[in-house]
Amino acid sequence: MLRLENISTGYGPVQVLYDLSLEARPGEVLCLLGRNGAGKTTTLRAIMGLLPLTSGRITLAGEDISALPPHEVPKRGIGYVPQGRRLFTEMTVAENIEVGLMTRGKGKETRERVLTMFPRLRERLTQRAETLSGGEQQMLTTARALCLEPSVLLLDEPTEGLQPSMIQLIRETVETLRAEGQAIILVEQRIDAVLSLADRVTFIENGHARETVDVADLQGDRTLLEKYVGV
Q: Once rounded to an integer, what is the mean pLDDT over residues 48-52?
């Protein structure tokens, strides 16, 4: 289980998160919802060690990972699919996948499993990442994160700008990973995707985790969606 306990952080002198707490459980999709600038992406960056905490702590399976440098966090089994993909664009598909495998010393079996999940990447192994379509780049970013065989996967706007067929593939991938017991934290603005995919939702407002509710409670009453997201 990944647990954030009263964490505060920001960018230089600008504080963004204030005593934020949440937990991601195995076999569950937790969605972070809130307006633009609420602190959702900052929360993911804090988990990955990209932003130092000014207070609070982050634990993974009981281990305090709050002070780990960014390159050590993935080695603990946390995969990150950032908004904007951030591939090694001049490297090939195969080389990007290899980077993911090397992080935790994974080999051919993991590589084969990932390519089975994303068969289109198998057809493009020798292509440079920059030549892929937007949807294919999203596949590759996700595949690279899955090469860690993570226990926790962070997804930041994974369906942004994708055509419906690609959105469906990402959704199916998330459902498969949840069924396998991974904990998934999803930042997503598409309310229909949230309601159909997430198990719980944490609403973030002005850097505070205001409420965490089961998705079933939102499907019949959209009051909280209107309050925190404005829909």
A: 96
72 phi and psi angles, rounded to 5 deg: -90, -25
Cβ atoms within 10 A of the Cβ of 70, count?
A: 12
Domain boundaries in the chain? 2-77+150-228, 85-148
When the pLDDT of each residue in the chain is averaged and rounded to a whole number, the result is 92
* d(C-alpha 28, C-alpha 179), whole Å: 8
pTM above 0.90, yes or no: yes
Question: Which stretches of 147-179 are DSSP H helices?
Answer: 164-179
What fold is seen in the domain 2-77+150-228? Answer: Rossmann fold (3.40.50)
Could you tell me if 175 and 181 are in contact, meaning their C-beta atoms sit under 8 angstroms apart?
no
Measure the CA angle with vertex 171, ends 139 and 46; round to 5°.
Answer: 70
pLDDT on residue 108: 94
Rounded CA separation 60/1 (Å): 6
The closest of 110, 117, 7 to 59, measured between CA atoms, is 7
Query: Burial of 88 by CB count in 10 Å (0-12 exposed, 13-18 middle, 19+ buried)?
Result: middle
Q: How confident is the model at residue 83 (pLDDT cuts 50, 70, 90)?
A: confident
